[in-house]
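User: Predict the structure for this protein chain, please.
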Amino acid sequence: MQKCHDCDSALTPDEIAMSKKLINRSGETLLCYECLAKKYAVSIQTLKEKADFYRDSGCTLFAPKTE
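Assistant: Here is the predicted structure, written as structure tokens:
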């Protein structure tokens, strides 16, 4: 299980993907939504909406939604 670099919380697959998308695709520094929101001065909701946007756009970092 991967953990947030800043707060040590467990990461979801979308948080891992968003960290790779925003910080460094091959980097080891992964952040949770809360820490990413602080780093980029945006809301957590904005990050989740961007994750959906990237997923719908075909970005392979984000797994398809299952319903």
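The CA atoms of residues 14 and 23 lie 14 Å apart.
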